[in-house]
Write a structure and sequence with these properties.
Strand order of the largest sheet: 10-9-11-12-13
Shape: elongated
Structural class: alpha+beta
Distance between the termini: 92 Å
Oligomer: single chain
Largest sheet: 5 strands, mixed
Amino acid sequence: MSDFVRHEACPSCGSNNNLARYTDGHATCFGMGCNYYEHANGEPIQASQAALSTSRGLEMSGVFAALTDRRVSQGICEKFGVTVEYGTEGQITKHHYPYHDKTTGKIAGSKVRVVDNKQFYATGTYENTGLFGQQAFKEGGKYVTVVEGEADALAVAEMFDGKWPVVSIKAGAASAVKDIKNSLEWLESFENVVICFDTDEAGQKAAKAALQLFSPNKAKNCCLPLKDAGEMLKANRIREFTSEWWNAKTYRPDGIVGGQDTWELLNATKDVKSTPYPWAGLNSVTYGFRPKELVTITSGSGMGKSQII
């Protein structure tokens, strides 16, 4: 037996905090789909062995209830299928976040949050599962929001009264590209995809990578004044969140300027020196030639190019 010490980055899946280190030196990653494990001496074991060491049967027990510490109502929890377990003194001890098989629609895996130590562990299988919350919404529509964590998905849904679809990637910023690719067809069915990841460096790096996966002018990046959507809801800054969400800017690759941003440039008057040609007709269509411009004169052989020059 050993006690939890700290969270660390996982050398296998790339997560920055899903690897749990214990007092005897061993470590295991609780990231979705990651079976990385280290012995007490620091040596990793094969993934197949790790799966046997860390695998858990599907755990999806408890009842529907409000997450009062997170200001999330029971109705939103029911919509996403999130359940809780209570301790002997009536306090919530666990949250269960379900992941559904994309083919059958049944719950295949879950992520369980232990409230006391704020640890997560995975149960069941995550093969062929969609994003968290994907099963709660039909494909297609005006907007869908993608966040980093399950609690953030519940928070966004709460702040929008469940009006707009919202989903979460499975294992934080490190899994963003992989998870979105696996559900890209479903996400592309919406007119607008709002990426609302954590405001830390890892979150914004993942957001930039995720934005590039979508067709042009579809994805928007929503940056918040606090760390994430969950923090915005707990601080009751709902109006600020909705304002940032609606004002999220459409992603464009570096160097690309949208047409709507060029109107002032087109209408700006520039004082440019121009030298006229000795022919009125040519001046009427070219306004002469300007310094630093290259003028190319071309025509068939013997038609007077040299004479004009």
